[in-house]
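quick one, 209 residues, struct below
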Amino acid sequence: MKADDFKALLAYWADVMKENRDYLIDLDSVMGDGDLGLTMSDGFKAASEAVRDCDEPDIGKLAYLAGKAMSTAVPSTMGTLMAAGFMAAGRALKGIVELDIGGTATFFEAYLEGVKNRGKAEIGDKTFLDGMYPAAMQLKNDAAAGTDLTEAALKAAGVAHEAFLLTKGMLAKHGRAAARGEKSRELLDPGAAVADLIMKGYADFITKR
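---
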């Protein structure tokens, strides 16, 4: 994946978030304040548009620019977290002009760490991290094993979806959902749904590319 491919992936993610805007709104209206669909749709659109016409070949710089644009466009809690993920990935990939499966694994692991460091949540707190962490680790393991990129992307997407479904039963420890106490266990986490959509979008993009 070179710079033009990465820009195309950002555009694809923007389309995915736009198409799933109402789905995310519905999930978040139960767990949060109902604006997640708008935040993700507007945020990923801003990230994509920020680099769309950029001639920069450095994927790290593109990811960082995308994150900066997202942070300005959607300065809400979740918007800030997703932007932090892009900027952390950008720092990790600085100087990289082409991503193989190893570089892709680095991107998602750095994205995860960026969100984690900014939000101060932990795995198991019923957040975005619980959807992304298993997928990022799956990619990391597949990269080490030399797995084909398409196969690895599909496996990671499957793992992210399973992880999202497993948030039902978990106790929420952050945000408005935490105020529900034990009743939060009955609900799926909308942040993990975003992780699910990111990984599914990535897998779809790779298989169609």
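The CA atoms of residues 4 and 165 lie 33 Å apart.
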